[in-house]
Amino acid sequence: RAVYLKSQRVRFLQNNIIAYQDKAWGDGDIFADYRCSPGVEVDRYREGHRYHILISLRETKSRGDIEDFQIRRVIKDGFTQSTEEFQTEIDHQTRYIILQVIFPVSRLPRKVMLIEQNTGRSTPLSADYTRPMPDGRVIYRWSAEHPRLFEAYILRWEW
Q: Which of 18, 22, 129, 152 could hold 53 in an S-S bridge, CB 3.0 to 4.6 Å?
């Protein structure tokens, strides 16, 4: 069981926006539980290996409005292979990104890498990118200002 959390501040660039689109992909039951705020999930469809989730905002947004979206998904039976990864893709201008994975005490990774898919760059995440938690879990965290548009950032680990 894994819990995926996404926070995103969005500034709307046009008037009369009534919906927001989320994307999801992965192995296992990636929608064991799905919640969003603000708004309500009104449709979900698959395109290739990705799902698009349509969220009705329940109010009309105007150019310049800012909204903070919170997405929570529970994933069951995912991350079961000896090598796993978490990926995000930058498909719009983004000021700041944080990728963070919290590993359980019973399943700490042996090695974690950051991979920038389009550039082919791989960076081992050393102790500088980790933080132990009081309960024994370990957080791996990577961040960047102004990530490259259309780049896919992947955290890959070996159990």
A: 22
